[in-house]
Design brief:
It contains nine helices and eleven strands. It has 271 residues and is α/β, with parallel strands linked by helices. Strand 9 and strand 10 form a beta hairpin.
């Protein structure tokens, strides 16, 4: 089955206008002549250039067009990281889905490694509080607990795939929790846990070569990554380590925080 040529067509827009739930699509179709249109046009362009075909690309299209926030964000973040790696001039290829868990990307240069992309969504606990009209506390400990769950349980098979190929494996984690857009400097809290006194990396899988923590935002329909509050953490206990500086445009963390030397004036990398 050939993949569709475009996504977010008129049929999709009609269905989006009819939905009544709190979907990301509701806001977008309400501003198709402004930022909503810019957002969809960006995703259409990325999708058309994404080097997959057939049923594999059709699956990506279905997740992008989903009215479920988690499905949509997962697909968009996968595309956003692919676009970011292109921006960094990596030689990278998506890995088609298989009958067993595989990472999302195989990188060939600047070094050979595999990448799995994941999203930390708003927790079920916070969603319940929102529905009840209650406030949500800033709790870095809870966010950290959920990240550790990704690293030790949910993404273990993808990391093992990389190790079985005798290559480093990196997990890219987009933070979409409640407080992720408020500039809370969580990336520093994560650095303290992983490489500070707690040496959190010691308790994580040795197949994990690096963790990339990403804050992404949409400004008037344009997508950007925070250069100031995103970071790459290198696991000193990894079986197959990644060279420090592999993703040099983000903060680099191995034993201490090193700010990016190429930070733009506003601190955002536009994709």
């Amino acid at each position: 089955m050939a993949a569709r040529k475009t996504v977010f067509g008129e049929s999709w827009a009609r269905r989006a206008r009819a939905i009544a739930n709190a979907s990301w699509a509701k806001e977008v179709v309400g501003s198709l002549d402004a930022e909503g249109g810019v957002y969809l046009a960006t995703l259409r362009m990325w999708f058309s250039r994404f080097p997959l075909d057939g049923k594999h690309k059709e699956g990506l299209a279905s997740r992008m067009e989903s009215f479920e926030n988690e499905d949509h964000l997962g697909a968009v973040n996968e595309l956003a990281w692919w676009r970011f790696m292109q921006r960094e001039q990596f030689h990278v290829a998506p890995i088609p889905t298989a009958d067993f868990p595989t990472p999302d990307f195989a990188v060939r240069t600047p070094s050979e490694f595999f990448v799995e992309v994941s999203t930390l969504n708003v927790s079920a606990k916070d969603q319940c509080k929102f529905k009840a009209g209650a406030s949500v506390e800033l709790d870095h400990g809870e966010t950290l607990r959920r990240i550790l769950g990704k690293l030790t349980h949910q993404k273990q098979n993808q990391l093992s795939y990389a190790a079985n190929q005798k290559r480093p494996g990196a997990l890219v984690l987009f933070d979409y929790t409640t407080w992720s857009a408020f500039g809370t400097q969580f990336y520093r809290h994560l650095a303290d846990f992983l490489l500070g006194k707690q040496r959190g990396f010691q308790g994580l899988p040795v197949e994990l070569s690096a963790l990339v923590y990403v804050e992404r935002k949409v400004f008037e329909g344009r997508i950007a990554i925070s250069q100031l509050r995103s970071a790459m953490y290198y696991n000193p206990y990894a079986t197959y380590p990644l060279p420090v500086g592999t993703v040099a445009s983000l903060n680099q963390v191995w034993s201490q925080m090193v700010d990016s030397k190429s930070a733009s004036a506003e601190g955002w990398l536009w994709l």
